[in-house]
Amino acid sequence: MKLSTSYLLSTILLPPSFLHAFLEPEEATVVASKSFVSPVVSFQTGVVNEQVNVDGVNFVVFDQDEQQQLVGDDKIVPFAFAIALTSLESTLGARDTIVDYKSGKIQLLTLSTPLFPGGGFENGLLWNVDSTNSIADVDETESPATISEYTSLAITSIKNWLNDHATTLQIRTSELGSIRTAVHSEGDMIQLSMDRLYNNIPVLGSRIMATIKLGNLVNVGLEGWGDINDLDILPTLSAEDANKILAKEMGLTLVVRGPNKCEPELQILTLDTPSTEFGQGYGYTLVWKICPLFENQDVEVMEGLVDVHTGQVYSFVDKVHYLQAKGGVYPISNDKQYPDGIEQPGWPMPYMYVGNEITSTGGNYYTEGTLTASLNGPYVQTVDNCGSSTLSSSDGFDWGTSSGTDCTTPGFGGNGNTHSARTNFYELNKVIEMARSHLPNNSWLKKSLRVNLNINNSCNAWWLNTVNFYRDGGGCRNTGELAGVIVHEWGHGLDDNDVDGRIASPSGEGIADIYAALRMGDSCIGRGFFYNNAKCTGVREIDYMQGSRKPKTMSNNNCNGAVHCLGGVYSEAVWSLYKRKLQSAPYNYDDNTALEIVTRLTFIAAGNVGTWFSGNAPWGGCGSGSGYREYLAADDDNGNLNDGTPHMQAIFDAFNDQEIACNTPARQDSGCAGTPNTAPDVTVTPGDTVANISWQSVPGATKYQVFRTEGVKQCGQGKVILATTTSLKFTDTGLMNGREYYYIVLPKGPNDSCFGPASSCKTVVPSEIPVPTTPSPTRKPSPPTKSPTAQPTKTCGNGFCQIEESLTSCPVDCADQELVILTNSTKGAPGIMFWVTADSRDIDISAFKFYTHEATSNIVQVYTRSGAYSGFEQVETGWELAFNETVQLMGDGYSFTTLTLANKVNIFAGATRSFFIWIAGNANIKYEAGTSEGDLVGSDSFIKFYTGAGITSKFGGSSSNVYKPRRFSGILRYDIVSSVATAPPTVKPITPKPTLAPSKKPTPFPSTKPTPLPSRNPTKQPSKNPVSKSPSAQQTTTRSLLDSKTTTTTTTTTATAKPSILPTTASPSRNPTKSPITSSPTAKPSLSPSAHPTTFSSAQPTRTCGNGIAKYMNHLLPVLKTVPTLYGRCTMLGIVGIMFNLMALRDTVIESFDVYTDDVRPDVIEVYTRSGGYAGHEVDAAGWEIVFSKTVQQMGRTDLTSLSGLGNGSGVTIRAGTIQSFYIFSANYIMYDVGSVDGAAFGSDASLTIFEGSGIASDKFPGTPVADVVFSPRVFKGKIHYDAVTLATPAPSSTSPTNAPSQKPTTKNPTPAPNSANPTMAPSKEPTTNIPTTSISCTDLTSAEACTANNACFWRPLAGSCRARTNSKTSKRLNLVP
């Protein structure tokens, strides 16, 4: 028989990223980030190389003379080895033997060999195995009774077996080292791992493993067990030498006289060799295992392996282990229907006791060490009639999976580790979590629920203060393995413990079915209950369209009092409300929105239902406390049912179909005016056990609800409400890494009953790899840019604390500022220290918000001191107590713990103050590792926040109680109490960094003194500043991190010129300035307009055609730059449309726009244009002309989307001196920035000026004004591609300052200014050059070659057409991106 082969190529497993440990071990620090493993290392236990699967005992002889055996892929096995293996398999009854080609030995044997008495296959042994493995008849009471006795028996038995077969296995049993064991289920399963020693030196990556099940040896394997011969075991280098080598190689600094994290030890390292010969694939070398202490190292145990002879570093890894609890679960049923009827391995065991800790919703826990767990927790206590569940582990808990049903287990975790126990524990905790999010004040949902499993009966389940489930039998499956049945019985408990406090009549079965259906997203209740082929194999189908297609009504139900049948009357109504009524006209809700509406109504309404229906058909819902009435009450938005409710017609229709509605009050949908009709666009990014959810604001939304679910049905099942918030982001914590989670965000209108459409379902998989975060900035940004020429306006109430405002003069804008600093907070300690600096204004610190690891009540203290705390981490001197109260800590789930300071802490402008938050008791503040103590964590225009330290002992202990650097994670709230900084007297403005290269041309904006024409040869450096008799206005720019709005402050010193409406630039532009034709140096361009523009001198113009510049090359003007938020998105805003005006300073053809969109997807974008400004025409289509309408691949927020070919390739012409307005529209949202003054000039070059415009929130041109449709001022963000067609300019204007520079330099004696009240709108006209004429029409030339050959024509590549020149021109673009 030809042998099959399988190969597992050499794999290097990099060290795991940090998850959680009890106070400090978590994500990679500076030291841990240096981790690596050399590619030649094979020491990872369980990783083997080039295995050969020997299928059966027959071999095909390749070359008998050479005594070799061909085993596929040209792998040659020695003939003697093949014969020996054949004999061994025959003797032991082994099959599917795996051979490690590199070691030349057996890698895995699959057996069923009895080692000691047990219930294994053909195990006829009796008790009392002696050292020779002889058998004697003894009393059964002498069998092992303790874990210790089982451990001793297993070790003795496996050693004896290995001695018996050492020759065939090609091992020396003298090399066997320590043996570790794990005994499961009272000896039912025992796992063994045997280390290897060579001359009493441990061999890394080489071991023997074995598994004993019910007394039988079921597998035994050798890993990395090659031959070690003549290895030099006398080290050349000392352990201290190895420490120094390791530090140098890793670029780290050893702590002088610092304690080692482990004792130096000699070890033998298993390596891969390049040999392809059988048995020659492993090599061995002697190394020092060392764990020195480095600077900036915390509790990480960084282990290095250094060759004792050569000094080569083979590995440097963190040896801390991280923890999680998980197990196999049936998602919906055990009916084997893929995927929700198949047991899913590795699902989290939420809210489970692990030692003294409780796991999170993702099964995570923090405590290190060997711990014991069972399938019990604060909310669910499992009592399994098959036995108890228990596991002990120091490396996380995996309860495993198994085949079979009832009392079948994976072979460990105790006899109570059954399918039913795992599935019940998971599903009950999840539905209770879901219910708690809807009914947070229901005390029953916070109590422990007892679950009785595998009761020795069949075909039922029941509730009587406990939930109870039967075994498989009688044509029914094990009811404890059916999630729908589990939730149904739990639903009875909620019905019995709600507001009404009893099971509702005439039947409580219906509401239990509803809870199950909404949680499972399945109308077949308890799918898989019966072993049959019916369409619904559950106990009931509550969707009548899946069965009789007729509703079960009050008059035709034929139930004869049967409670399950009667329950179907109203459960069908609720399911119909969800699946049909709300998803049809006039509502047309999507499935997720409809599901959450009905889920909310049900949890609220059912709590007070006494009798679901009564009286006579067709109005069975008129009684007090009827289901119909309670659903209406839950749906009401204004406390008056008589004027209708938001979804009254849908509720009526659903209940009326079953004859259980009521004809009063009169049915009408009403209320919820202004409720959002746009779904939020949601982004979800993964972190380490977290998901970061963010979304765009939706018009009309007063708040948002964030929902999460998990499992094989994605968003199509019941969800947990994570948050109800006015924010646009949320971080979900405590998740399982590597597991898919699903999220939606629902916008809410003026009342909780008012639902906008849900976002699409978003999927995220949390990852151990940390997600880079950017400190979220202050909630209230700096004031927007104001035009210096604009008249002063009243600013209090505009949402910004202006420079002239303070807490006293404008509390609405200057109170309750928030600096948000949220990180992936995996670390924690009872205390955190940090310092803050008041940047430009006096401030009062008023509150702190943060997460804690635990949800409990504790005394919390806040201390403060002047200056940075350095040197006072363990000394109370100088610290003042600012807060000392008992606080309810909220844990790491849904809410911040908030400390509001009754006596606010004042910080003068420019001063620094430290804070120390301490929890007195067994609880920890969550924070994150920093890079360096004192690093800036986050800032805004008023405050700076710095990296600090974690503290585990208040004002005492040793340096080991101080963990540095640590970053506070949370929110700092403060008030701005001064309008001008009191100390220091002045604050340096923030100026933009200079660009990398000097300017190639003068600025396009007019200066107080005109700039000379550039020459043809540019210099390499920017020109020097001239001496000016009339200094221009100096402007500085600062930015708020939140909205990226720019604040421009103008300081003028006896300037006579009018200030510019455009901000200055504090740096040279990118290209070198061309040499001026005057003898004096070129003045540094000023950005203020000329007070008195000069006329052209009589000097001859320099020839510039062909230099790539449309007379003056377009200045690439950046829009307000954006910064990343915590979730990696830009802070630019967006809506379906953006309108803006362009003014041409010369005849210009707009060729195309490049824009940012909200998402990456194909969608239609339209561009409209009209002559003149758009003001007054935002909603009226009259006068607008469409010049672009195409489906384009939109590139989202990080890459520009090109809209080329406006006007079918002809472009949009704007005559010099005129204004043209544009409207860019897409349902996928066009992104823009917030402006300063509506209609103010925002950017300009020598050809175009762009003005601040408006965002448009409605569909195109609704015709009549609609509330909240036009948002202004808003700034187009992108690029404008255009052709500068002519240099002709209109007559001078007296309405506005100059928007472009003078076109000619001033001589030493400039000509007088023109006699006009104001500067001209455009540069003076320059003499033109004659252009040859031709009798050939340029439009007749169809190729670029023919067109460009005629110097009277030019080729327009975007349009693909030839056009006659009217003057020298070059295609250019106005750049409006950073």
UniProtKB/TrEMBL annotation:
Composition bias type Polar residues, residue spans: 1016-1035, 1062-1102
UniProt entry tagged with the keyword Signal: yes
Region Disordered, annotated ranges: 766-793, 984-1102, 1288-1331
Signal peptide residues on this chain, from the entry's feature table: 1-21
Keyword Nucleotide-binding: no
Record's compositionally biased regions (Low complexity): 984-1000, 1036-1058, 1288-1324
Domain Fibronectin type-III residues, every copy: 676-769
Gene3D superfamilies linked to this entry: 3.10.170.10, Immunoglobulins
Keywords: Signal
Biased composition (Pro residues): 772-786, 1001-1015
PANTHER family: 1, PUTATIVE-RELATED, SUSHI DOMAIN-CONTAINING PROTEIN
Listed name of the protein: Fibronectin type-III domain-containing protein
Annotated organism of origin: Cyclotella atomus
